[in-house]
Specification:
Layout lengths: L2 E3 L13 H8 L7 H4 L7 E2 L5 E5 L4 H6 L6 H12 L8 E4 L13 H18 L3 E5 L1 H8 L5 H4 L3 E4 L2 E6 L4 H4 L4 H17 L7
Parallel strand pairs: 1-6, 3-4, 3-5, 5-7
Antiparallel strand pairs: 2-4, 6-7
The chain binds uracil.
The site of uracil has 12 residues, from loops.
Length: 204
């Protein structure tokens, strides 16, 4: 599959920062008003050495209550899609663009993304995955610096310096648009194929 290069994104692995350090800096964050309305801050979970990092939009109701990403209905769909890629939750790392739930699951606001995204950037630097899978438009637009629509972005592999980026539809979207599930399934199979074609380097 053709890989599209994003100009201006060549970067080397920076100084190692641990996820614990990032979490400690985030603390009991109240940088934006979502700090007042959240139940739990949802930092992210998974393998700190994952080859594949998934980035969602923001915690929903169940995530806000449990403090973990993708534990509700969208998470169940994600689990079935991971199987198609030959992945298990323990292989991957999952985080969101926003660490706190927007009331009534409204869209994240630009100022919230601006305040919260340094933590996501540090999580990416810490994990230094081979592939970043963007679940939905907020993650895709943040990572790829584009405003393009998801139907044109989804299923294509992009190269941003070290990282390969695969934008896919949000797993929750197929719960409302059943006909979109086929695109998700196709893209997760393509992810599995990409991983098989690019075996992990020795010692990585
Ligand atoms: N949707 C998201 O984008 N993230 C979650 O953690 C749950 C649902």
């Amino acid at each position: 599959m053709a890989v599209m290069r994003i100009p201006g994104h060549d970067h080397q692995r920076p100084r190692e920062v641990t996820l614990e350090e990032v979490r400690a800096v985030l603390g009991d964050c109240h940088l934006c008003p979502l700090g007042e309305t959240r139940t739990k801050l949802v930092f992210g979970v998974g393998n700190p050495h994952a080859r594949v990092m998934f980035i969602g939009e923001a915690p929903g109701k169940n995530e806000d209550l449990q403090g973990e990403p993708f534990v509700g209905a969208a998470g169940h769909n994600l689990d079935s899609l991971l199987e198609l890629a030959g992945l298990r939750r323990e292989d991957i790392y999952i985080a969101n663009v926003l660490k706190c739930r927007p009331p009534n699951n409204r869209d994240p606001r630009p100022e919230e993304i601006q305040l919260c995204s340094p933590y996501l950037r540090e999580q990416i630097r810490s994990i230094w995955p081979d592939v970043i899978v963007c679940l939905g438009r907020f993650a895709a637009h943040f990572v790829l610096h584009t405003e393009a629509g998801m139907m044109s972005l989804r299923g294509n592999f992009y190269q941003t310096g070290h990282f390969t980026v695969l934008p896919v539809l949000h797993p929750a979207s197929a719960l409302y648009h059943r006909e979109w599930q086929q695109y998700l399934e196709q893209d997760f199979r393509a992810l599995g194929q990409w991983l098989a074609d690019h075996p992990a380097q020795e010692g990585m």
